[in-house]
Amino acid sequence: MSEWRCRKELAHLSHFLFRGCSCLRNGWIASQVDVKLKLPLSCNVEMFRHRARRLIEQNSSRASVFAIIFVAVFLRIYGINYGLPFWYHPDEDALILRAIRMLQTGDFNPHWFNYPTFLMYIQAIAFSLYFPLAVSAGNLQPFIEKIFIPPYYVMAVKESAELAGFLLAARIVTVLLSVMTVLVVYLLASKLYGRETGTIGALLLAVSAIHVEHSHYAVTDVPATFFATASFFILAQGMSLSKRRYFLFAGLLAGLAMATKYNAIVFIFPLCLFVLFVRKPIWKGSVDAFTLFLSCCTGFLIGVPFVFLDTPTFLNGVAAEIWHYRTGHIGAEGTIFQNVSLYTAYLAWGFGPFVLLFSLLGIILGFYRNRRETFFLVFPAFMYGAALLNTKVNFVRNLVPLSPFIAILAAYFLWHILGSVLLARLGLPSLKRNIVFTVIILVIIVVPLYNTLTFDHIAAHPENDTRTIASKWIEANIPAGSRIAVEVWGPPVSYRRYNFSMTIWTYNYDYEWYISNGIEYAVFSSMLINLNDGTRAFHEQLFKSFLRNGGKLVVTFNPQERIWLPGGSGSFQQPSIFVYNLTALKPNSRVSTDSQVQTCQDTSSYSYIPAPARVNFFLHRSNFMCQGQRDLTFSPESL
């Protein structure tokens, strides 16, 4: 009936418009319009105006989203070749090598559960697509079991370059999930607070240096963030539509997030409690919360199917990570107050101080205006943040799952206060108001965009990395067959060309160790030197012993460009490298100690670590932190 009436009114409108145009010159158009038809005519004109305005808004919103997605893709693809063909990120091999081994052996049990397995399976699917393409291009032999995996820690050996294609394929997977997270943030924020908030939130996440940086690595943080954010969006849909299948799908995605990164478990229980107490009547909330929890467990079992098939190994892997976070990690540990300071500085670097402030104001505004929607976002995020602050290990990468919430809450404040209230009171026309608001948003994102482009620029030029330059120098200047000891996070060295040793934690390798093992050249990295006061003091005494007994600092490679990151994390991109010639070393004394420097010993020992043997690779704290040591900042050239 309504469609027929609409067609009838359209016919009336076109008829009188035609007659009006033909009679306009005679000046009596008004007399031709029947008074009874004035109401339908005005209604149709208003309807056309409303539909046209709505169509323009939808098209402009879609164009904005497409532009934001393009920006997100560019910022994440630019610099994706970080370190290639070498492996400079310390955690990428833990997943990639096991995914390759699954394809080689057909055994999809990784026999290692310090990380959950879902991302390994996704990477294995990506590698099964990459392998025939690489074979057709002549880059690999047509036998997957013959893919070369170095028998040492891939960061340290030059032969790991043969696996660069797999590393790039795994990073592309991370980029795809990262860009999809930007889209999901738009959908989630639009669902909760409106389309304008969704557009701004997607832009803030697209240029966030935190999210962009970790989108360059084939590790778990960004994929887990995607699944968690998608779970929130589906759950928001379920809460508004009251359809139980949405709770089922949301739980499956939350379970997959936990199957990607164990930390995501912190989101699950707050979500279940939210559904339990918000859904009315109470029996519906109970059923939906139980559905959500049960589907979370199902999703986790889908992503980690060997929970019950290899239970002892699974429990050992999870317990190892819990012990790791409880006892500490050298160079990445602190008290609650130290964690607050570090995390705040890192978030300010990644989003800019204004966005971080606006997100806090967005929480206050949200509880005042949209209490239910804001509580839906803030409660799980608050629980996750509290869990991070109360762990001894303070890896900044664990902040990545919080980035969508920060972007959405900041966007909510920006639009509903700055855009809708303050600018509206100036009395500007809508076009000028939108232009002024756009300029303000662009000014706000200058800081995170600058940090993002700086990181991307450094990552996009691996040939300028000090480790790559040092590796080439070693190949050209140190004779083949020499005994070389290379510190972890140092340059990759060919184990086929040299008698190679890798020193993982320096406290095990004092002056006497270099003498007894006949080391001719030693290579050190500032990344390990500057972990804490203890490592700096140890290296200072070790280098003094080298120089005092005939050793020589041959060459130093300092970074041309260095990106500042809170906590010194920027040395992941550009550490300083020091090469010592120890051929004339005299075996006459150990490292000397004084009242300010104590000898540190660690119970674990890692030398010549084969990749397959990295089953329980986690840190025992032991006596890593020496007491009473002074803060030493030094350069080996000054000794």
In sequence order, what are the helices and strands, one letter per element?
HHHHHHHHHHHHHHHHHHHHEEHEHHEE
| Most strands sheet | 5 strands, mixed
| Total count of helical runs of at least 4 residues | 23
**CA-CA gap between termini:** 92 Å
User: What would you report as the Rg, rounded to the nearest angstrom?
Assistant: 30 Å
How many strands appear in the DSSP assignment? 5
Which consecutive residue ranges, at least 5 long each, have pLDDT under 50?
Answer: 1-5, 7-39, 589-635
Tell me, briefly, the overall form.
globular
Helix/strand-derived category reads mainly alpha
pLDDT averaged residue by residue: 79
The fraction of residues in strands falls at: under 5%
- Helical coverage, percent range: 55-70%
Strand order, largest beta sheet: 2-1-3-5-4
Brief synopsis:
The chain is mostly helical and 639 residues long.
Question: Descriptors for this entry?
Answer:
mainly alpha, 5 strands, disordered N terminus, five-stranded mixed beta sheet, 639 residues, 23 helices
Give an overview of the whole structure:
There is one protein chain. The protein contains 23 helices and five strands. It is mainly α. It has a five-stranded mixed β-sheet. The longest helix is centred in the first third of the chain and has 40 residues, at 38-77.
Task: Note the topology.
Blueprint: H1 2-23, H2 29-32, H3 38-77, H4 92-105, H5 118-136, H6 164-193, H7 195-206, H8 209-214, H9 221-241, H10 244-260, H11 265-278, H12 282-303, H13 311-327, H14 336-351, H15 353-369, H16 371-389, H17 403-425, H18 430-444, H19 446-459, H20 466-477, E1 483-487, E2 499-503, H21 511-516, E3 521-525, H22 526-529, H23 533-548, E4 552-557, E5 577-581
Parallel strand pairs: 1-2, 1-3
Antiparallel strand pairs: 3-5, 4-5
Helix pairs in contact: 3-6, 3-7, 4-5, 5-6, 6-7, 6-9, 6-17, 7-17, 9-10, 10-12, 11-12, 11-16, 14-15, 14-19, 15-16, 15-17, 17-18
